[in-house]
């Protein structure tokens, strides 16, 4: 077509050049050629318009295809996401809700104000502040809210949102996503409960009691009485009836203690057959009266589920706040001395703490001195002995492997400190480390441990990592980062092979200076592990705000009952995976512990079953892979 039109135009052009020598036929031909030229020109214009329209149609078709593909991708992402994707208009009403399972309790037409009214957890003032921020057109992240499900349970959500702007730039709504955090929150609540309660009786534990008596958390001028209880004859029940009967008896005792509490009082189990009560506002007379009624209640006969009758006695020691001390340690120490007096008086009675002559306390015989007094006598000389051990280079390191759950191979070696005192024999780390921290001796000890361990690891070679514990006192030293850098330089150990184990408490108590110190260590190439996760008041702030390379789960998880440890360990591992952190299960001492760690997907494991601490690093590396 294009060639034909071009030919017509050429012929028309020839007609324009036709000779006009008065020849009438020539004039007619000339007119014909002019008409042909005009027709060709019009045809060419029509063709070009048609071609242009065709190109526009093709472009629009391609753009429409791209738009549909983009919309399909967005739709697929929304359909496959576990998050709720939403939009609200300027009035705060939902216009788009992608909830597939109905767990959010939000539908099109609901308003943000409806959510605020239904929230059983978030304070109203937080909602008011958020709604005001939305009205100002401010984007937001990590807003937390909760809803009550149809079954009565509470679901927790985390929301991010951005404003939608109209053509004139005004805010015409918001869009964003809401993530269900219920599993994470419930796991943390379970961990917090576990950290603060006795797993057998459900009573608050020693940590709870210590917090209750902490001067920092008490009201000024508050009075209280601390009752320390010990069951007389409990060992006989355990020996004769068995541990199951003993556990059942402890639960029955806990029930009677709870029944005797007044509002504001707490009862806790400290361990074994030892319980403690805090009586809010009680003076000496009130405390003694309640103690005597407790004795009567607790010595009454018990009956186990199988009908077995049991009888026990109970001795109670009483200390008063503030007369006998300001903190848990001092009050429990005084209550323990009073408890000793009660037992010395024949048991099944109560005594108030006072000077030995007033409390009826005879000088305790040396062979059977109360554990508290023995510890006090022993600890008095411990700092001097520890300082001498440092001077004489009497401390030693041992090495314990951390194994891969996949094949049992050694992934890392943790170095541990040991002290064998000439006069005491082996001294447990949980005895001398606190003394070293209180006296400041932990600073030179920690530097020595780090230098010795790095030197040994550098000489041994390999690609495995060396793991070294850092104490809170050592971590607080401003020279820690240059100390680590200098030791790595002097020993020749690559920074990538060193991992420092920190605890969440030392980080959170010193944040943000801790975060800056961690940032500098990681910039050097040193790895960081969060140790003892799950042992205390678990807080995700340590994982959210500070980047770690490894999460070590506390050994206490594997000491739970068979019914508890699987779900609790699974929850901890789920938290580790949520933060994209490899995990180590500590305290693997039985084959079933090893099997559980692998079954639940832990990356690494550590414990006596997988290798006891060795004095020789080479021997630790050469320990056989467990079956």
UniProtKB/TrEMBL annotation:
It comes from the Bacteria. Residues 379-627 form the EAL domain. Residues 222-355 form the GGDEF domain. SMART domains: EAL (SM00052), GGDEF (SM00267), PAC (SM00086). Residues 141-193 form the PAC domain. NCBIfam families: GGDEF. This is Uncharacterized protein. The lineage of its organism: Bacteria, Pseudomonadati, Pseudomonadota, Alphaproteobacteria, Acetobacterales.
């Amino acid at each position: 077509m294009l060639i034909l039109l071009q030919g017509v135009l050429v012929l028309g052009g020839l007609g324009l050049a036709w000779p006009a020598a008065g020849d009438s036929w020539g004039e007619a031909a000339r007119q014909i050629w002019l008409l042909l030229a005009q027709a060709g020109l019009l045809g060419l214009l029509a063709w070009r318009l048609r071609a242009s329209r065709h190109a526009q149609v093709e472009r629009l078709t391609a753009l429409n295809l791209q738009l549909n593909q983009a919309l399909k991708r967005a739709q697929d992402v929304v359909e496959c996401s576990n998050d709720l994707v939403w939009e609200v208009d300027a009035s705060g009403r939902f216009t788009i809700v992608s909830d597939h399972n109905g767990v959010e309790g939000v539908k099109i037409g609901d308003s943000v104000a409806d959510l605020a009214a239904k929230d059983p957890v978030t304070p109203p003032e937080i909602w008011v502040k958020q709604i005001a921020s939305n009205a100002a057109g401010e984007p937001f992240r990590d807003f937390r809210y909760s809803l009550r499900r149809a079954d009565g349970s509470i679901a927790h959500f985390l929301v991010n949102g951005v404003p939608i702007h109209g053509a004139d730039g005004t805010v015409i709504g918001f869009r964003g996503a809401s993530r269900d955090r219920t599993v994470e929150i419930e796991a943390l609540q379970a961990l917090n409960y576990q950290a603060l309660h006795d797993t057998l009786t459900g009573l608050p534990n020693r940590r709870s009691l210590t917090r209750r008596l902490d001067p920092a958390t008490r009201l000024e001028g508050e009075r209280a009485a601390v009752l320390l209880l010990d069951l007389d004859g409990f060992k006989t029940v355990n020996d004769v009836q068995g541990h199951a009967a003993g556990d059942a008896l402890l639960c029955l005792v806990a029930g009677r203690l709870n029944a005797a509490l007044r509002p504001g009082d707490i009862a806790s189990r400290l361990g074994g057959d030892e319980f403690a009560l805090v009586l809010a506002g009680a003076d000496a007379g009130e405390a003694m009266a309640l103690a005597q009624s407790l004795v009567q209640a607790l010595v009454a006969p018990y009956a186990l589920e199988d009908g077995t009758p049991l009888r026990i006695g109970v001795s109670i020691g009483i200390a008063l706040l503030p007369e006998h001390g300001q903190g848990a340690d001092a009050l429990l120490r005084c209550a323990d001395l009073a408890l000793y007096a009660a037992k010395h008086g024949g048991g099944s009675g109560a005594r108030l703490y006072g000077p030995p002559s007033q409390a009826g306390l005879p000088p305790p015989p040396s062979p059977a001195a109360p554990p508290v007094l023995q510890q006090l006598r022993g600890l008095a000389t411990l700092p001097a002995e520890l300082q001498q051990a440092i001077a004489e280079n009497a401390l030693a390191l041992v090495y314990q492997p951390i194994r891969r759950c996949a094949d049992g191979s050694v992934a890392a070696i943790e170095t541990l400190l040991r002290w064998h005192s000439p006069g005491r024999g082996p001294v447990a780390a949980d005895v001398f480390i606190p003394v070293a921290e209180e006296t400041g001796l932990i600073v030179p000890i920690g530097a020595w441990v780090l230098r010795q361990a790095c030197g040994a690891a550098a000489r041994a070679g390999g690609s495995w990592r060396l793991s070294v514990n850092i104490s809170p006192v050592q971590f607080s030293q401003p020279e820690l980062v240059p100390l680590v850098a200098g030791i790595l330089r002097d020993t020749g150990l690559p920074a990538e092979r060193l991992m420092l184990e920190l605890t969440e408490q030392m980080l959170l108590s010193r944040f943000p200076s801790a975060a800056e110190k961690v940032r500098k260590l990681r910039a050097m190439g040193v790895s960081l592990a969060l140790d003892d996760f799950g042992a205390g008041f678990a807080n995700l702030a340590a994982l959210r705000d500070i980047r770690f390379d490894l999460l070590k789960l506390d050994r206490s998880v594997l000491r739970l009952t068979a019914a508890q440890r699987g779900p609790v360990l699974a929850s901890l591992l789920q938290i580790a995976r949520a933060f994209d952190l490899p995990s180590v299960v500590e305290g693997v001492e039985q084959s079933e512990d090893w099997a559980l760690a692998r079954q639940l997907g832990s990356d690494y494991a550590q414990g006596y079953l997988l290798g006891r601490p060795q004095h020789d690093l080479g021997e630790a590396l050469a320990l056989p892979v467990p079956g």
